[in-house]
């Protein structure tokens, strides 16, 4: 039985926490924060990304299921869904964007001699997801509210390319 840190904690131990702290200080990320400091917020977001969590409820349920192992994964205490929602709404996104640039810089230096090392700088993408309101009299299959219907359009673009990398359109499943 493992008595040490979890794999998640071991993975995050290799990240430069001092660089993250510089990003937090630059944008005052922990100013007037009582419950969820910026680093713990990053841990939650990293955990959600690595485990393919799809919603705040999903993230909270999965973290709560850790029980006593939660502390050994790097979290100080169980997380409330409303606390995470407030942090996502209030905390400056540039903290995480700047930290991502730090990590891309480290990866570029580590893999400079590899064939794909030069592609790391060009790997930045922009993701835009837009919900388009539709008229129910024309699109009866898309019931969302009494008088509205949505359609979701997503575009992913590479910064170095002139055209989008991928486009997708998704209609919600009809309610029966």
Structure description:
The chain folds into two domains: 7-110; 124-170, no CATH class. 39% of the residues lie in helices and 15% in strands. It contains seven helices and three strands. It has helices at 7-12, 17-26, 38-50, 56-64, 69-72, 81-90, 94-110, and strands at residues 125-134, 149-158, 164-170. A three-stranded antiparallel beta sheet has the order 1-2-3, with no helix packed on it. Strand 2 and strand 3 form a beta hairpin.
In short, what is this structure?
The protein is an alpha+beta fold. Helix content is 39%, strand content 15%. A 3-stranded antiparallel β-sheet has the order 1-2-3, with no helix packed on it.
Q: Which descriptor suits the 3D outline? A: globular
Largest sheet: 3 strands, antiparallel
Report strand order across the widest sheet: 1-2-3
Radius of gyration, in angstroms, nearest whole number: 20 Å
Assembly context of the chains: single chain
The overall pLDDT, averaged over residues, is 77
Count of individual beta strands: 3
Order of helices and strands: HHHHHHHEEE
Which residue ranges are poorly predicted, with pLDDT under 50 across at least 5 consecutive positions? Answer: 161-167
Structural class designation: alpha+beta
Helical amount among residues, as a percent range? 25-40%
- The number of helical elements comes to 7
In angstroms, what separates the terminal alpha carbons?
48 Å
- DSSP strand content: 15-25%
Q: In the residues, how many domains can be counted? A: 2
């Amino acid at each position: 039985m493992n008595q040490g840190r979890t794999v998640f904690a071991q993975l995050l131990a290799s990240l430069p926490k001092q660089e993250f702290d510089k990003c937090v200080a630059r944008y005052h990320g922990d100013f007037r924060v009582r419950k969820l400091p910026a680093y713990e917020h990053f841990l939650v977001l990293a955990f959600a990304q690595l485990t393919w969590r799809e919603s705040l409820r999903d993230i909270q349920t999965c973290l709560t299921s850790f029980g006593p192992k939660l502390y050994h994964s790097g979290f100080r205490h169980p997380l409330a869904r409303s606390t995470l929602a407030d942090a996502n709404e209030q905390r400056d996104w540039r903290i995480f964007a700047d930290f991502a640039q730090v990590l891309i810089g480290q990866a570029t230096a580590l893999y400079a001699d590899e064939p794909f090392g030069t592609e790391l700088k060009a790997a930045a993408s922009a993701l835009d997801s837009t919900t388009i309101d539709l008229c129910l009299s024309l699109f009866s299959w898309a019931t969302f509210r009494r008088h509205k219907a949505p359609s979701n359009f997503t575009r992913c673009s590479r910064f170095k390319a002139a055209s989008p990398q991928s486009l997708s359109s998704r209609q919600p499943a009809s309610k029966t």
